[in-house]
Design goal:
This protein has 150 residues and is an alpha/beta fold. It has helices at residues 8-11, 54-57, 76-84, 96-101, 133-141, and strands at residues 71-75, 111-115, 125-128, 130-131, 145-148. The strands form 2 sheets. The chain has a 3-stranded parallel β-sheet.
Length: 150
């Protein structure tokens, strides 16, 4: 039976390199002669001995087009919450310029899309570039209108 104090791993002493010829790890301390790897403080970063490095083994993902259109999306429940907070008035026409001015959408967005998630209670007129069918239905049901820019 092996107990903690007589395990072979514990009782092995560490190899002390550079402590004379008789140790078998003296003089160059097992680093060979000259060259980059014999110097101290040198590690050849990300070099895997000629094996294909990890950063080249992993695939590149996705494609980033140069002319990407930033489309700001706005759900009906978000519009309703802005109305409740009195950020936007129901009397004025809701368009991307107004939303950018009030900092409710990103200033870099080129188009505005209205999506139909959630409910809207107030009648409001919206001008947007794109809209989902459910958003148009819900807006028309409460008497609001949406104009789509061509």
């Amino acid at each position: 039976m092996i107990t903690l104090n007589n395990r072979s791993k514990i009782n092995k002493s560490k190899i002390r390199v550079g402590r004379g010829i008789g140790s078998g790890k003296g003089k160059t301390s097992g680093r060979g002669v000259k060259g980059q790897k014999s110097r101290s403080g040198v590690a050849i970063k990300s070099f895997e001995g000629g094996q294909m490095p990890l950063y080249r083994r992993l695939p590149k993902r996705g494609f980033n087009p140069l002319k990407k259109e930033n489309i700001a999306i706005l759900n009906l429940d978000k519009i309703q919450s802005y109305i409740d907070k009195k950020n936007i008035k129901t009397t004025e026409l809701l368009n991307s310029n107004l939303l950018k001015k009030l900092k409710l959408i990103n200033k870099n967005s080129s188009k505005l899309k209205i999506l139909g998630s959630g409910e809207i209670k107030n009648k409001i007129n919206i001008e947007a570039d794109l809209a989902s069918k459910s958003a148009v239905e819900k807006l028309e049901k409460i008497g609001g209108s949406i104009q789509l820019k061509k």
